[in-house]
Specification:
Rossmann fold; 5 helices; alpha/beta
């Protein structure tokens, strides 16, 4: 087996949340300290415009361009920290379904890293979902990083 066969891959779900930076930074630091890699998943969710095919196609194209730009910025930001360029996945569908499918399809993914929301609505829909019944389906551990952690705190625990 090659060296890469044993490499840990830390998967982060990319969204528009404030906590994203915390999750990405934590994953990059862990990857750097363990000789692993970071993987980024961005899911383009279906819009409410599906009955207007042409408008939906245009909206999907715009969301994909925005996803690519965001992922490029994140890659540029965390590559120096992680020590390698992240693996990037862009999928279309329902986020939780696409996340579970990716984990099933990619045996190299080792750990899912999520940051908990700090607002009154709770930790976030993905964490709430994955810590319920679907947790039994996962073949990898989930690391939940406190959304209110500072970069300095993350550096000490990663």
């Amino acid at each position: 087996m090659s060296q890469n066969a044993h490499q840990r891959v830390f998967l982060v779900v990319v969204d528009e949340s404030e906590e994203l930076q915390i999750a990405v930074h934590y994953a990059a630091r862990r990857a750097a300290h363990t000789g692993g890699r970071v993987a980024l998943l961005y899911v383009i969710e279906p819009s409410e415009l599906q009955h207007w095919r042409a408008i939906e196609d245009l909206a999907r194209e715009e969301r994909r361009e925005e996803a690519e730009q965001l992922l490029q910025r994140l890659c540029d930001e965390i590559s120096p920290i992680a020590g390698s360029m992240p693996i990037v996945y862009i999928r279309e569908g329902v986020c939780r379904d696409e996340l579970l499918a990716l984990i099933d399809e990619e045996p190299g993914i080792s750990i899912l890293v999520l940051a908990a929301g700090t607002g009154p609505e709770g930790p976030g829909p993905l964490i709430s979902y994955l810590t319920g019944k679907p947790a039994a389906r996962l073949r990898i551990p989930i690391t939940i990083v406190p959304g209110g952690a500072t970069m300095e705190q993350l550096d000490t625990v990663s």
